[in-house]
Amino acid sequence: MSETRVIRDYNSHNCYFKPMHETAEKDQRIDMGNPKPEMIEIFELQKKKALELRKTSARERIRMLKDLKEWMLDHQPELQKALYEDFKKPIPETDLTEFYLVKAEINHAIKHLERWMQPRKVATPLPLIGSQSTVRYEPKGVCLIIAPWNYPFSLLVAPFVSAIAAGNTVMLKPSEMTPQTSSLIKKMIAELFPIDVAVVFEGGIEISTQLLELPFDHIFFTGSPSVGKIVMGAASKHLTSVTLELGGKSPNIIDETANLKDAVEKLVFNKFLNAGQTCVAPDYVFIHSSKEHEFLDLLKSHVTKVYNDNEEDLAGIIHRKHFDHLEGLLTDALDRGAELVYGGQSDKNDLRMEPIILRNINETMKIMEEEVFGPIIPVLNYDSLDQVIDFVNVRPKPLALYFFSRKKANIKRILKETSSGTACINDAVIQFTNNNLPFGGVNSSGMGKSHGEYGFKTFSNAKGVLHQRVGFTSVSVLYPPYTKRVRKYIELLLRWL
Ligand code: NAD
Q1: Fewer CB in a 10 Å sphere around the end CB: N or C, the chain?
Q2: Residue range of the domain that includes 77
Q3: Position in ligand 1 atom list of the atom nearest CA 146
Q4: Which residues are within 8 A (CB) of 248 and not within 5 positions of it... i.e. 6 or more apart?
């Protein structure tokens, strides 16, 4: 008889016996670190509940989404207050980027969920004639969503909408850097969902690390590339699928044909939104040399017009460490020859930094090595589009690329000859808000897609199902014994089909 050992199985509430040779892999779960007992218990409850949720109809899932939207509508002022307390986020920006974006994601899912859930027929190749094939989207099961601080509500709740629409149970980990918003989300989820459907675990790295020990069916992580690697490493232990929404340096390129006034107005809004702490913010500007002076004059005067007497319209910097990091990038750039075109005033105690524009930038500066993630625009110039394309292509693939131009041939070249998670022509950031577009990075800026139907598919397993006829079929003629006739059929198949 084979040796038996007791192992703890997360699929059930019980311990059970298994032959030793079958436990080799599962044994590793015993050493999975130390998730808190209540975490494991909730995980087990969710695992059980996930089997029920997979049977839910579009109507039942839509009910959950409608409850979520209603709660948000009832608590809008609380959300505004929480985000202001966390990092002085201006109320209009909270309404647009936290409230509206999630509401739009919910509305979009409500409108299309029934269709997304339908099995989709696919064509049948000739050798399989007589059968029927469909793709069925089934929920993955128990999912983990980990979010960053910069859009602490929308970057946690929008993927949650996709996960619920797809029929999963969810464990959520908001950022510890935004305690007011995180605790409001915890309250929202607790009021709307039983813990076996959705639950929030507040806390920092320790809680995240414990959660990552659990054998989830999918992990959706938004945050920095360095933590993304840790998440992927943890997921690999259980072969859990991951979506990584990461960051990077998104270029904002303006060619000699662009409407400069238009490009400047759009740049200022999209760069200084959330004080530059946006994953898809234009990170640096590449301007055609012939237009640099005109561009900088327009940029300076527009920034002055927008922010000079309206300090409150610019969000604060999230915390002291990040503030010091931004000051470090600025000092390093100035030490290495950058020219300060605008700004430079900051209030360390209040964690406020006014918009900063730098020119005479070179590649040795730290500001060109790291994601800026703050209200600083480094401006570089170029003479030929080849230069820009080469510059982008030798660096990690960005999350977004922005190109301002009125020349079709240039637009075509940029789109074809560079790679980025997303791109936007003659504007920036707003590609994020179209739910019909996939959102996500590529390589170091991320993997997997979110938003709308892409989000639904991310949290689903696309199951390929072939339904064969009973009895004789087109495939039966190929069965052994491999007589002369069967061999002839195989020959025909290879030659003609
Ligand atoms: P972060 O990676 O430091 O933290 C993100 C989350 O991971 C937090 O919940 C945090 O608690 C957790 N975490 C941190 N260290 C961990 C560790 N060692 N092990 C396990 N979990 C850990 O990111 P951040 O500072 O909150 O956010 C800024 C970054 O997020 C930027 O790089 C930005 O570009 C990126 N971002 C990407 C997107 C996107 O959609 N692609 C959106 C927003 C932000």
Answers
A1: N
A2: 37-246
A3: 9
A4: 225, 283, 371, 396, 397, 398, 399, 441, 444, 445
pLDDT tens profile 109-145: 999 999 999 999 999 999 999 999 999 999 999 999 9
219, 284: one domain: no
Ligand 1 centre distance from Cα of residue 228 (Å): 8
Q: Which atom of ligand 1 is nearest to the CA of 440?
A: 41
Q: Within this chain, do residues 8 and 60 fall inside the same structural domain, yes or no?
A: no
- Is the CB of residue 455 below 6 angstroms from any atom belonging to ligand 1? no
Last residue of a domain, one of 440, 467, 491: 440
Q: What is the CATH number of the domain that holds 41?
A: 3.40.605.10
Judge if the beta carbon of residue 188 lies within 6 A of ligand 1.
no
Q: Which atom of ligand 1 is nearest to the CA of 148?
A: 26
For ligand 1, atom 43: residue with the closest CA = 279
Ligand 1 atom showing the smallest separation from residue 231 Cα: 20
Tell me if 3 is assigned to some domain. yes
Encode pLDDT of 449-464 as tens digits: 999 999 999 999 999 9
Q: What is the secondary structure of 157-221 as a DSSP string? A: HHHHHHHHHTT-EEEEE--TT-HHHHHHHHHHHHHHS-TTTEEE---SHHHHHHHHTS--SEEEE
Q: In this structure, are 110 and 141 located in the same domain?
A: yes
User: Does one domain contain both 155 and 284?
Assistant: no
Question: Which two three-digit tokens encode residue 387?
Answer: 């230069």
What is the number of domains present in the chain?
3
Q: Is the CB of 233 under 6 A from ligand 1?
A: no
What are the residue ranges of helices labelled H in 349-427? 385-393, 408-417
Q: Is residue 491 part of a domain?
A: no
CA angle 74, 164, 30 (to 5 degrees): 120
Catalytic residues: 245, 279
Mutation probe of ligand 1 site: the residue of 279, 317, 401, 458 with most atoms within 8 A of C-beta? 279
How many other C-beta atoms lie within 10 A of the C-beta of residue 119? 12
Please indicate, yes or no, whether the overall pTM of this predicted structure exceeds 0.85: yes
Assign 3 a pLDDT band (cuts: 50, 70, 90). Answer: very low
CATH number at residue 331: 3.40.309.10
Is residue 446 within 6 Å of ligand 1 at its C-beta?
Answer: yes
434 shares a domain with 381: yes
**Whether residue 204 is found in the same domain as residue 284:** no
Q: 147: Cβ below 6 Å to ligand 1?
A: yes
Which residue puts its alpha carbon closest to atom 6 of ligand 1?
Answer: 148
